[in-house]
Fold these 3 entries.
Entry 1:
Amino acid sequence: MEAEQTWDDECDVLVVGSGGGALTGAYTAAREGLSVILAEADDCFGGTTAYSGGGMWFPNNAVLRRAGGTDTPEDARTYYRAVVGDRTPVELQDAYLENGAKLVDYLETDDDFAFQVLPWPDYFGSAPRASDTGRHIVMKPVQPEALGDLRDTLRPTLGVERAGEPLPDLVAGGQALIGRHLLALSRRDNAELRTNTCCEELVREGDTITGAVVSQDGVRRRVRAHRGVLVASGGFERNEAMRKEYDVPGTSRDTLGPATNQGKAIRAGIDIGADVDLMSEAWWSPGLTHPDGTSTFSLWFTGGIFVDDNGERFVNESRAYDRIGRDVIDRIDAGTVTLPFWMVYDDRDGERPPVRSTSVPMGETDAYRDAGLWVSADTLDELATRIGVPADRLASTVARFNEFAAAGRDDDFQRGDEAYDRSFAGGGSPLVPLETGPFHAAAFGISDLGTKGGLRTDAHARVLDRDGAVINGLYAAGNSQAAVSGTVYPGGGNPIGSCMVFSHLAALDMAGRDGGGRA
Ligand SMILES: Cc1cc2nc3c(=O)[nH]c(=O)nc-3n(C[C@H](O)[C@H](O)[C@H](O)COP(=O)(O)OP(=O)(O)OC[C@H]3O[C@@H](n4cnc5c(N)ncnc54)[C@H](O)[C@@H]3O)c2cc1C
């Protein structure tokens, strides 16, 4: 847009959003002495990050090393290169790989931040230098009293928001990650955090972004940002039109991102000439379908097999959720899977599906049964008829799978071969035979944790234009940034880990450190 003459607010750094991709940037900028305004469109802080497990993939960091980890930067680089390939620039990959551990050091000098190891195997266990225990840490939980009134400003968990559960007694996972940042920021008088403040446009003067137009409680305000604007406003997963425009599989109904993740600031970047990449990509997952019609991110399967339209297995059901999601999308494209697809399981643990983590808690069994989402039958033949797959194929699929379970080896899809596959089976085989009737089936769809295509940046998180030149004063991180991981999900903690690293680097650049930033 054309620059107008007046500004309503001024700061050094305007941060757009308040998830992991924004708060680390806001914190770093404030700690480096810059004045910060943070604009959050919703009425609470935290975004998808507050819903999340809060895992961070930072190879070779001090927390892992203190716990006896023997990872090396070289091993991490070998692994990351092997799984991401050359889909994203090497400099971007190296920036992530090298700066996660440094960021942990930086945060650990502030008592408001404390970390602990949460072992979580890398998602491509057969790739070179994959780690069986992972490169994964989380923030230590916080007692609610430590947050005081700040807890009221923190987005609650999905269980609270979507299933009416009470607030948990302990602030943990992504809640702890956001809560600790809010606490640290509350101690700095040079950071102002605003809710109900949506970034609508970016202001470009010549080749420089000088600020943004926000809508604050419905009132238009022009915010001048002397050092730059950091767009860390998540993805566009809730914007159905934008999903269609960029061919993102799945629907806005089945994403886990908050309703405000509409991609407005990504669009504002495009409007002032920014380049984008990876726009059809998301962090995928199979999603258990609920009676309200949503299918939500599910993992930790303690049994069951997925079958396609022909009653045949088509995937290693114990591999990481993003890999399963991509397999399902490929089968949909190939015409062999129609949604919903079915998880078939036996009665050893009863009628409820053997799914231990559904992100949105499962409701009452009757509601799923009444909606036709959970189906039971005394025999496999009858079950096949009820879910619309050929009975003879389902019978032979189950018979073959039971042979694999007896042998402890899956010759078709190698379920159990990698460390992640075994992580929810106590390290043992995840192959559980289907032999105890009645038999059951549960409907699944495709869910996502958010889109991961966005503004293309360099290794300092500086946004590039369509000729590849840096746009002065514009930065992007998190799901607003074209993901460093490209078309794969290398390991738990990659989304948040990369959010935090690139927002930190953006803030350092704006502070004039690491050779970047503007005077
Ligand atoms: C159940 C679940 C568990 C997960 N667990 C993990 C995990 O353990 N580790 C991991 O790495 N990843 C995990 N993920 C994925 C991860 O949470 C997200 O990819 C990541 O948090 C996205 O962070 P972000 O900062 O980019 O966006 P978000 O956290 O979504 O924050 C974006 C914020 O920007 C705001 N916003 C949007 N548009 C505007 C605008 N125009 N102006 C102002 N504000 C705006 C939104 O309201 C929102 O608050 C999980 C996801 C889910 C759903």
Entry 2:
Amino acid sequence: MNRTLQSELQEIRSLGLLRSTRLIKGSQRANVSCNGRDVLMLCSNNYLGLADHPALSAASIEAIERYGTSSGASRLVSGTMELHEELERAVALFKKSEAALIFNSGYAANTGIISALVGRGDVVFSDRLNHASIIDGIMLSGARLVRYPHGDYTQLGKLMEMHAKGRSLIVTDGVFSMDGDIAPLAEIAELKRRHAALLMVDDAHGSGVLGENGRGSAESFGVGDDVDILMGTFGKAFGSFGAYAAISAELRELLLNRARSFIFSTSLPPSVLAASLAAIELVQSNEGEKLRDKLFSNSSFFRKSLIEAGFIVPTGSTQIVPLIIGSAAVAMQFSEALFSEGYFAQGIRPPTVPAGTSRLRFTLMATHSQADLAAAVEGICRVGSTLGVL
Ligand SMILES: Cc1ncc(COP(=O)(O)O)c(C=O)c1O
């Protein structure tokens, strides 16, 4: 490797910011073997446990037998298969939108959508804690980025008074990925109307989990009609992979013609599309309802137990429970020590979260047992006391 790159890598190492992967053996369950150790999984986005659900696996296998393993091309060449259109119809029905467009991942959706909708001379108002893929989409677009303080719609309103000239887009996570809180969508929708702005909500962590039948955060606030672009992913609660934008038919046509991540990439394969279709059905079924109930009782139990033990846990109600530590080094030590106790929770540090707010990000699943969670809280307390965090 070239010398300057070597020294840049060395700098990452010396700052204690080097990242590496951990190997999970078998499927994504609550109890897994990770790097050769049996641990309780506390950092997966497989919220409803659908990643190894028999209905999704069966649908994938059947799709492979019927349609093969690849779409062979991008959507606008010859890569649009029956399942792409079927999934888009299913998403539109589920989200009560006029149309939908499938993207290859949430990252591809955010970068592609934002850079297709705005450009030089336009303004994007973005929550300070929005996901990195949103920020990258804004950078790629060349539009002016105006960040507003996290969840602060009063400030957003003031910033819009000052800067909302020409075309403007407000973009926010529905459920914030590292904090687990929910965006104030009713107030944001009101600002969108007042300034005739476009509104985009990234519901990667809300879809399948919040709202009636798991329709997501916008539906839970009753502001679905104000959201011009409702983006969501299939890789989290839906146990599959890929993403979508629930939109008007006109916006679909525009994105199909302009979103470069959609245009210049081989489309999703049949197995993935079939798993997503099965997941949309399951999420809306009685089984989906039961899984959501279990997820919520697990999340409330876990959050309450950590708060009662004396940890700094922001108030919230979702399945994402951050335990704020501050120092990146201590957050990583905490994560390592917990791992030795048999609990896997990733330490999250800059640049994923702002400096000084490094944390453990716990994510709950419907497949956790309450006994396992209670034992995990005890383990977290032991490590917290040893490291002086408690
Ligand atoms: C809020 C949010 N948006 C987008 C993404 C990207 O989605 P994907 O993993 O499908 O690329 C993620 C996480 O992965 C996310 O947390």
Entry 3:
Amino acid sequence: MIRFLLNSTPIVLDITRADVTVLQWLREHQLKTGTKEGCGSGDCGACTVVLASLQEDGGKVQLEYESINSCITFVGALHGKQLITVEDLERNAQLHPVQQAMVDEHGSQCGFCTPGFIMSMFALYHHQDAHTLWEDTHALEQKIERYLGGNLCRCTGYAPIKRAAIKAMQNHAGDHFDTVSQSTIEALQEIQRQVPMHPRFMHPMSAAELGGMRIQYPDARLLAGGTDLSLEVTQQLKDIGSIIYVKQVPELLSINTNDTHIQFGAAVSLTRCMQNLIVAYPNTENMMLRFGSEQVRNQGTIGGNIVNASPVGDLPPLLLALNAQLELQCGDQVRTVPINDFYLGYKQTAMRGDEFLRSVRVPLPAANTQVFAYKISKRIDDDISAVLGVFRLQLEDNTLVDASVAFGGMAATPARALALEKVLCGQIFNESLVAKGIAALASDFAPISDARASAHYRQNVAANLLKRCWLQLSKADACLQVGDYVGG
Ligand SMILES: Cc1cc2nc3c(=O)[nH]c(=O)nc-3n(C[C@H](O)[C@H](O)[C@H](O)COP(=O)(O)OP(=O)(O)OC[C@H]3O[C@@H](n4cnc5c(N)ncnc54)[C@H](O)[C@@H]3O)c2cc1C
Ligand code: FES
Ligand code: FES
């Protein structure tokens, strides 16, 4: 049985299949058709819904509201959460403030995308800093762009939609979800006291249980956020018979920081991973905010991105450059593998079939170390990288005492640029070293041409990223991207 709240209604679900999506369940089983299906692949945001879940902060239990794409979320992942759809926002024939603002600002024409935008705005309306953030209009606009980056509109244009979001947030006065939050918390606590049981959607509640299930059910697929796995169902029309869901395993959800490293449980969401990583590595924020969309970052996990082993995955180059260590578990045995030994070939890793990824240890920066991460893709929001370059440089005076550089999109796996590193290490970082580095880089990779970019473009871009890194370090006023030229 899968138990959750559909708005305030307790649901006990006993469906036979493990791979029914939340969108399918809403539209076909509940006949709630307010939530739309556009792409079915997480790219358009038409199917956005909001999940509220319990979070403990300093001993106080709160509700955390996150937008997700219902088309790429399986219903088993709803256990213990509150599912809120566009139908739930109106109250006593009064539109919710975000809906009213969309009407007032003419934010909708054909209306197909509108429920998705409304739900993304609703998640922002319940942002934890909702009461303070809105005093700073610039910060508010940035947050709005971030929250709406995963929603596409083909006819209205984004200006009225953005105006509506600004208006709703600046007139923020709370809503009926705030009024009933205590009873929602109690209802979710009651659900969480009951262990979820579904023969094909298994919910291990500890790493030991997960280890046992991995061995006992070798054909079951491990599911974290599902932002990769679900596409096998929605795009390739495959059946996924059995699922082992890792996102309720406490060991895989923890984040611990000590003097030397941050340890992320493999099922930590990309949103949480970003919040913690940027404290140690502030220059990675721009790249992390370009990972998918808000919905994808809320759903997707650090572990899913590593294990998926895509040559254009965004986190692996960063983790390679940072020399992260992976903890792989089989049964109750844990072994540590440097991520630099993890990728063996295209979509091949050193993880055995009976293992799972338990955690990722990311070293904290050594003294005088700077890390730069650059993502190059066709669109700013919600696009897969053509090339992604990460530079970890330790500089004493002007000399590079240590350098590790990794790229995505340049080979069959995310990979280090070892020839480039050899040229950089021990040398003074100046323009002539950059030129030598670019020559060395040509021997590191022989990229392919595909729909995202040609081999020539990739090679050129990788070289330019090295130049960009040097400019960023050496010239405080350097214009590094098109936006920097505005007004210049
Ligand atoms: C619209 C959209 C945009 C995207 N944008 C980006 C992007 O910008 N950059 C990018 O890099 N990726 C992107 N992705 C891909 C995807 O979001 C990421 O790879 C994400 O990190 C996958 O995490 P997940 O938890 O959803 O993985 P899942 O789909 O749950 O799992 C992926 C694979 O990893 C396995 N797995 C998961 N957790 C574990 C574990 N703990 N141990 C062992 N195996 C495990 C699963 O069995 C599966 O084979 C995008 C995807 C979508 C749909
Ligand atoms: S239908 Fe497009 S993101 Fe779900
Ligand atoms: S209003 Fe038509 S797609 Fe947005």
